[in-house]
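Justification of computing resources. Each target in the renewal requires a structure prediction run like the one illustrated here; the chain below, 516 residues long, is used simply to show the kind of job we budget for.
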Amino acid sequence: MNAHELIRSSAAVMAAKLASGEITSVELVQAHLDRIAAVDGGDRGVNAFLHVNTEEALAVAADVDARRARGGSDARELHELAGVPIAVKDLIVTIGQPTTAGSKILEGWMSPYDATVVKKLRAARMPILGKTNLDEFAMGSSTEHSAYGPTRNPWDLDRIPGGSGGGSAAAVAAFEAPLALGTDTGGSIRQPGAVTGTVGVKPTYGAVSRYGAIAMASSLDQIGPVSRTVLDSALLQEVIGGHDPQDSTSLTDPSTGLADAARLGNVKGMKIGIIKELHGEGYQAGVENRFNESLELLRGAGAEIVEVSCPNFGYALGAYYLIMPSEASSNLAKFDGVRFGMRKLPAEGPPTIERVMAATRAAGFGDEVKRRIILGTYALSAGYYDAYYGSAQKVRTLIQRDFAAAFAQVDVLISPTSPTTAFKLGEKLNDPLAMYLNDVATIPANLAGVPGLTLPGGLADEDGLPVGIQLLAPAREDARLYRVGAVLESLLEAQWGGPILDQAPALAQTAAKEAK
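Resulting structure tokens:
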């Protein structure tokens, strides 16, 4: 198997080839590093990576190969994914690599500790290829708000890869990494997955530790897997999931049985609910067509399709854009130019703490971050707290009740992940409200804490770009998502004649560049 074929394998296939000795981890990591060098940089590069971790990744790979070569307990104790490389969103702190959160205010900052999920990757001996690009402090839906330039969609380099985790999704879609970690506050794993033709999962809130993820909105943020197959995401969530005493919101549930659920291959007798409020008017025709085809495939596999109503979902977007900026304004107060990160002295007057803070935040934060901090601070201010933040929390309760009522009728819910396919770079950059609407279908899951999964649903008729299908399950029922998702993925790939990423024209162009 040559490098071109190797990097297009699933993580599960890579793991099997490593275990059998057909390939080495050093070969696998080097193939991905070569791919990154070929397609990520330059004016027309994907720009998925902000930092490439070459030396450490190869060192970890060499250690895995040496353990396998020695055999015995050294080989037996290796995790199933040992030697399979991974990328990490640059919102998750790592020792030995900069963590910038896509912001100038943290340019070059080196964390003194690893996030819990990074510790688990290291324990599983998964080589970390580097840190991926994102909207600054995860605030955005297009990865155009990064201080280090936008990431480009591998399907069409003039289009956005989604956000805030467009770097992780684009890296996986462009075959620069088989797996990646993202964070999802209102859809930042799932919406990029939809527009890049990848699989993205927001686990149940608390199922994966948030310790070491730079917080935007603590009651909404969740780390999760990005991959090219449902099984790969299940395998990765088993690595990063589980209880963490350093995270007060961490669930005690073990992170097991997810891959087994993905391998089950049966939805017969399950009830799948179409969310009345999350399709139809306002959704691109090609998105609706692929969504309806997915419903028919599930029906043909023995699932019962029923429509359910979640009437308060119409208020989710408004509630989210009060709760999220309110929590962000509090969480980002630590970036003050005093304790760490950028320090900017005032142009005039004495350098008091207040003046230094004002100068630093003015120079270090981008427009979108400033916009959300101002909005959140206003919503939390005296006289407005109950009218805005308090009311938004009441709406959140109503949305949770909608989910509870829906899940009393069905096993999982289904909807399009994003109302449209990827739009062009710059198209909505100066229209924040239009940008926010991209998350209309993903936000309810974060407000309720339930798990959500997106998988490729095909290509839109109008533009030939990927469409995402979203599945939602009750809290703590992540395995149910993987079960249904894997079946739908198999049905869709049988219809397409293979993985959807094989059909990406921009990837064919970058493959030619890689071959040179």
